[in-house]
Design goal:
- The complex is a heterodimer of chains A (about 200) and B (about 260).
- Chain A is mainly alpha-helical and about 200 residues long.
- Helices cover about 65% and strands about 0% of the residues of chain A.
- In chain A, α7 (about 135-145) packs across α9 and α8 crosses α9 (about 160-180).
- Chain B is α+β, with helices and mostly antiparallel strands.
- In chain B, α1 (about 5-15) crosses α3.
- The radius of gyration of chain B is 28 Å and the shape is elongated.
- In chain B, about 40% of the residues are buried.
- Classes of the chains: A mainly alpha (about 200), B alpha+beta (about 260).
- At the A-B interface, α2, α3, α4, α6 and α7 of A face α1, α3, α4 and α6 of B.
Chain lengths: ~200, ~260
């Protein structure tokens, strides 16, 4: 079995006019970008919008990609910016929806049940609690602990010093634990699930 | 006492070198705050480790793929300037001519004519059938959604300026989401963009009707051009249809359209 074609080679082929190469890039990274956006924004519809914006931006800006960073790093930066843009938009959304969205349901506080039906209560707590973590800590935390991205790469994605990334990750972890209701020194997050059982 | 937050992240990861780890542990021996935080951080890290991936919808990215194909089919050459779609090359040259022709077509019928009196007297619901053609781009710090565009069509039937958000503090969006200077689009490019997005591919028919407003704003977060057109139902009837066409100002793809009839 041949090794997968590197992203940079797909970019090169796309720039030579091979549309299929772009399609493969989208298919390869769709899952990862969607989960990033879902955890950052906390809403599946918003996440889908942000992913569409991400890939449209990638399509438009791909000619500006110079290869001085890995394609995945560059694409994550585009995705994070798409999330920030949508997040800013959503903060104003209740005002905009006055125009005629009265029939729409209230925004959910967390992702819908089907996405997490198989998860334990502790996991669901973590997913919901993520939304209470300040955004800049949350993004660093998601990239580090959910996407297993190295701090150095996160620093390139967020364009901040690596020390700032490490601090944000630590502060994000502490904020998440507190949002989950963990207050003592023992890691009791997983145990919370069993407390809910009969 | 200063607290080594940056080191604490790697300490929790178990990724510190021996010397740094020993230094952190010495600090932890005398700092209750950091001991608590390390315990909390470990709990959070463990909780996140059990969060599964959520399957992405299978059609996610389809819009971008379709757009890539559309661009490739319409402009198979890959030699576009960096950062700009290939069509900018010829569109830029054609825009001036197209805009001049469109402005002439819109303005000439009104040169020397009586003031706007085409609408039947006393018919308050009649649209601005003889409204002035658009000759400039209105820049609005508004992020439209579909109801907003529909409201734009409805309000444009009879009340000039009564457009959702145009003068409404409640619908202003933050500067970061507004139209950025580098995204500003000229009148000619905006008209060309709408024409390109909404030209019938088989009949080569540009959007019909009289362009009465041309707005640059955002639609669902995407930089957009909104054209408000007045149309007649035909048979010599006065124009009583308002159509709003919305295209992305980034790539002139169709974002949405709607119309309202008096």
């Amino acid at each position: 079995m041949d090794p997968p074609e590197p992203d940079e080679e797909l970019v090169r082929r796309f720039l030579l006019g091979e549309t299929d190469a772009f399609e493969r890039l989208v298919e390869r990274h769709r899952q990862r970008v969607y989960n990033l956006c879902l955890r950052v924004l906390g809403d599946p519809e918003d996440a889908a919008d942000a992913v569409q914006d991400t890939f449209l931006s990638v399509l438009t800006k791909l000619r500006q990609f110079r290869g001085d960073a890995a394609f995945t790093t560059w694409m994550h930066r585009v995705a994070v910016n798409a999330c920030y843009d949508l997040s800013r938009k959503r903060r104003r959304q209740p005002l905009l929806r006055l125009a005629g969205d009265q029939d729409l349901p209230e925004p959910e506080l967390g992702p819908p049940v089907p996405d997490h039906a198989e998860e334990s209560a502790g996991t669901h707590d973590a997913v919901v609690a993520l939304r209470e973590v300040p955004e800049e800590f949350r993004v660093a935390l998601i990239l580090a602990d959910l996407h297993d991205m190295a701090y150095e790469q996160i620093a390139k994605v967020l364009d901040v010093p690596i020390g700032t990334v490490k601090s944000r990750v630590h502060r994000g972890r502490v904020a998440l634990a507190r949002a989950m209701g963990i207050t003592n020194r023992e890691p009791e997050a997983p145990a919370r699930a069993s407390e809910d059982q009969p | 006492m200063s607290h080594p937050d940056a080191l604490l992240a790697e300490y929790v990861d178990g990724a510190l070198a021996e010397g740094e780890r020993a230094a952190v542990e010495r600090h932890l021996g005398s700092c209750e705050r950091c001991r608590d935080e390390v315990a909390l951080a470990r709990a959070a890290r463990a909780a996140l480790a059990s969060v599964p991936e959520t399957p992405a919808p299978s059609d996610l990215g389809a819009v971008a793929i379709a757009e890539a194909r559309r661009r490739a089919e319409s402009h198979p050459d890959a030699g576009a300037p960096p950062g700009r779609p290939a069509w900018y090359g010829w569109a830029g040259a054609a825009a001036g001519i197209a805009a001049a022709l469109i402005v002439l077509a819109l303005v000439l019928p009104h040169v020397g004519s009586a003031p706007a009196t085409t609408a039947a007297a006393g018919d308050e619901a009649a649209p601005r059938a003889a409204a002035s053609p658009a000759t400039s781009v209105e820049t609005q710090n508004v992020n439209y959604d579909l109801p907003g565009v529909e409201s734009l069509a409805t309000s444009s039937r009879g009340q000039e300026g009564a457009v959702l958000g145009s003068n409404d503090q409640a619908t202003q969006v933050p500067v970061a989401a507004s139209v950025r200077p580098e995204e500003r689009i000229s009148f000619a490019d905006a008209v060309t963009c709408l024409d390109r997005a909404f030209t019938d591919p088989t009949g080569q028919q540009a959007p019909a009707g009289q362009l009465v407003r041309l707005i640059q704003a955002r639609f669902r977060g995407v930089p957009a051009v909104l054209g408000v057109y007045l149309l007649s139902p035909g048979a010599g009837q006065p124009a009583n249809i308002v159509r709003v066409l919305v295209a992305s100002s980034r790539d002139c793809s169709i974002l949405t359209s709607t119309q309202a009839t008096a």
